[in-house]
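Review session, final week

We close the course with one last complete record, chosen because it touches almost every idea we covered. It is DNA processing protein DprA, a protein from Bdellovibrio bacteriovorus with 306 residues. Go through it on your own first, then we will talk.
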Amino acid sequence: MNDLYSLSQILKHHPLFRTRRDEVLRVYFLLGSQKNLNADSLLAALKYQIPELHGALQQNHDLFKRHCEETWRMSEKGVQMISYGEEAYPRSCYLMEDPPLTLSYWGQPSWQGGRSLAVVGSREPCFESTQWMEKEFSDFCERAKPVVVSGGARGVDQKAHAIALRHHLSTVVVLPSGLGNLYPESLREWIEPVIASGGCFLSEYSFEQRMHKHLFHHRNRLIAALGCASLLIEARRRSGTLITAQQALQLGRPVWVVPGHPLDVHFGGSLDLLSEGAFLIRDAEDLFMSFNSEPLPKKGQLEFLV
């Protein structure tokens, strides 16, 4: 049983975590760097460094027991659980302003398997966008072998996942819900092929969490963090896709944009990004060259956190 995950689930919902988040994350990271991150060591460190939070956690025995029972049920269903600071935690997430304290996933931690590309776009893409993905993005996947990260929604997201699977590539489906309430429900048909390809379904929410509208935008920052860059296929103005692009830029990650005609409302947001300096992607060759120019993260890049 993962007692650290159970304890972390309580901690991240406690009001004190919101005000002392940076201090708590530093404790997790330091313990993780010392290979000593577990429930007991975390409580001991918090008792010394944030005693009021330690006291609050110590008083929640019944809640901890309930979370442990839920963690056991998740394990029985094949769910893997990780906390901030653990070895499998995505390194790119350490650079986020508000990184997830916990993550759960079905499948393999494929974000560790190589260079990843986040792909975002409309739920109702135009014909030209889907054709571009079939021709250019598919050719890029064949040559570059990326780990494809997207959100599992209909339209561009599912097209990106499908092309990755067709080329036997790992793909990460980042959910706006818990693993026990996959959204959209049609994703249940994708579980077997995604896991068989070495990919995963990833969530930062509790197992039974249902989809809520605000979770889409919250989820999108994780998509942006997991890619070395974000490829924006098609975006209207004031769309969730643009929010993902802005979050990628805040992380210092490049945003690559497929252009469209100025009179086509499907591409209003895309053209805005290009006018603000985003890199234009015409075809598979542009994408291949840009992708290969992005360096893989080095271990030393996170030393400033210690």
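Two points worth writing down before the exam:
The chain is about 45% helix and 10% strand.
The radius of gyration is 20 Å.
Good luck, everyone.
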